[in-house]
Amino acid sequence: MLAERVVEWTEKWKQQGLQQGMQQGIQQGMQRGVQQGEARVLRRQLTRRFGPLPDWAETRLSQATTDQCEEWADRLLDAGSLEGVLGPFE
Asked: Is the residue at 89 inside a domain?
């Protein structure tokens, strides 16, 4: 009887772990999708305003967080150069 309960509890814990893992994976995927979408829109806007983007700008966009993309999108409204939006080339 006890052995059966232990097996039952173990299976229940496995299922809970799987569900939590799936939820975390879904959440991370959604966050990554939002980040990629924001970077894509920002890339289009920067290209339209400043022309083709140099490699350093493409690298920054591909590595940017959602918060960075939002900050850069705000700067785009007032900046006079690509460096004014993304910061100086390093």
From this structure: no
